[in-house]
Amino acid sequence: MKTLSSISRLLVVALLLATATISCDQEPVTPEVATPEVPRGVLVFENVDALKETLENMKNGNGAIVASNQEGFESLYNIWEKCKAEEAEIMAPLNALTALSEQELIQHSALIEKTSEKLAQLKSLYERHIVFEDQRPVRLKFKDELMAHLINTDGFLIIGNNTLKYSNEEILHASFENPEEALEPFKSQENQSVDHFEIPSAQISEGRTDDFQAGCGTSINTSYNLDIVARVTQTFVPVFRNGTPYWVDRCEPSSGYCFGGHWVTPRILVGYNLTNTRVYANMKTTKNNCAIGICWRSAHRVRHEFRITGAHNETVTRSGVSTTTISKDISPRSSGSISVSGIADNLATYTCTAHLSW
């Protein structure tokens, strides 16, 4: 028994030593480090080439976005589409009554008044980003049709380690080292780290014509309306150069323990290039409806013809429509002029013309 007890103790010691040896031979555990991420809802382009590729995709009707961080992203253009969809839903019951006489419409006064209230609510919800006329959405306030698909509702996008904020008047930009702080410089209007690129007013043009010929006006005293909204927009993309490389430690946030790191060569934004000039025009034919002192417009389907002359020449026709929209690339021209004429058959061939220069 005594001999067996001694052997048992030796076996236990041997097992402990073996276990200790196994533990010593294991690879050292690397502390987990959370990778900082940019705020949700902002598109992140690896470089300016990815941004340019996306812009070309959109011009060619592809729509593919070469960017990351798309989860939670809502573009400024999405806001416009949501607003138009909600307007259509609000107006659908009312548009179903357009064949009725004014006397018959009075019987639906409760629906008409309710629709007017809903349109007022729609305007209050979206007027930060959208231009309204007679409580109806007309267009985005932001004029760059292409970039509107890529910036979020506050105008932000990210390229590399640079955050950009677009508006009609200027482009703001600031670089960052910590992705989680990518938007921090823009929270204060006095932040010196934010640079400004002012878009010359001569390079953004908008023409609105309402009274060139009879029937071209927005007055609801006539039976029908022909309206043209036309504008020329230009897209500016940033130009970068390599900055001075710097070392970034790899550290565990909770303990502050650092192990290794890497070199980073920042890309510094040094200016902007004009990459695209585009003409956008919308033609709409409507019928006026009035009852109990409330008037509204409903779609009136006829043949539309768009004629573009000047820096770009083209004719576009559509049949049996109430709205026609054209969006044409007229190359990255820094200056020029253009005329956009809308012609509606079945409305005594009324014509509405917008003249634009930039």
What does this 3D model show about the protein?
The protein has 358 residues and is an alpha+beta fold. The protein has one domain. It is 22% helix and 39% strand. The strands form 5 sheets. The protein has a 5-stranded mixed β-sheet. Strands 8, 9, 12, 13 and 16 form a 5-stranded antiparallel β-sheet that branches. A hairpin with a 3-residue loop joins strand 5 and strand 6. Helix 3 packs antiparallel against helix 5. The longest helix is centred in the first third of the chain and has 24 residues.
Observed structural traits:
single chain, 5-stranded mixed β-sheet, alpha+beta, 5-stranded antiparallel β-sheet, 358 residues
How does the SSE layout of this entry go?
Layout: H1 2-25, E1 44-45, H2 48-59, H3 76-95, H4 102-105, H5 109-126, E2 130-133, E3 136-140, E4 156-159, E5 162-166, E6 170-175, E7 195-198, E8 205-209, E9 224-242, E10 246-251, E11 258-264, E12 267-291, E13 294-299, E14 302-310, E15 314-321, E16 323-329, E17 337-344, E18 350-357
Parallel strand pairs: 1-4
Antiparallel strand pairs: 2-3, 4-5, 5-6, 6-7, 8-9, 9-12, 10-11, 12-13, 12-16, 14-15, 14-17, 17-18
Helix pairs in contact: 3-5
